Amino acid sequence: MKRFYLALFLLLVVLLSSLAVARPGRAQATNLLQNPGFEQPYNSDGSAGSWSRWHEDTGKLTCDVRYSVLPHWSAEVNSDLRNDGSTSQAVGNLWDPWHGGVMQTVSVTPGGRYRFSFWARGR
Question: What does each of the 123 residues of the chain score in pLDDT, given as a tens digit?
Fold first, then answer.
């Protein structure tokens, strides 16, 4: 009899957990981002069109190794360093650490479900 109740309990746990799993919503018909592929034209500051730069710059500190400086932004045209299209966004420095990237603000519906994915290459 204990096995019956144990099996019934396990079945109930499996059923309830399957109901609690979030179901994916309907796919968004259009991409909410402008220029999601980081294609030309690029802004004079090195960021892809429709994107804004962001960074943290603490300046070089002589007694603290946890510093970050202004990175460089540019269009990457090397086919080995991009996933798709003719260009991608490059951000970085050769020697100094940096914290930065590009960003974009989009309008969303409160409580809506959205999926964000990206492809990146770091070195």
Answer: 555 444 444 444 444 444 444 455 565 578 899 999 999 999 999 999 999 999 998 877 766 677 888 999 999 999 988 888 999 999 999 888 889 999 999 999 999 988 888 888 887
Positive or negative CA dihedral for 76, 78, 80, 83? Answer: positive
**How many Cβ atoms sit within 10 Å of the Cβ of residue 38?**
23
Whether 47 and 60 have beta carbons less than 8 Å apart is answered as no
Longest dimension (CA), the chain: 76
- List all residues 6 or more positions away from 21 whose beta carbon is below 8 Å from its beta carbon: none
Tokens read off for 86: 């003719």
Give dist(CA 66, CA 37) in Å, integer. Answer: 32
Instruction: Compute the distance between CA of residue 86 and CA of residue 71 in angstroms, rounded to an integer.
Output: 22
**Across the chain, where does the E strand assignment appear?**
52-56, 72-76, 88-92, 99-103
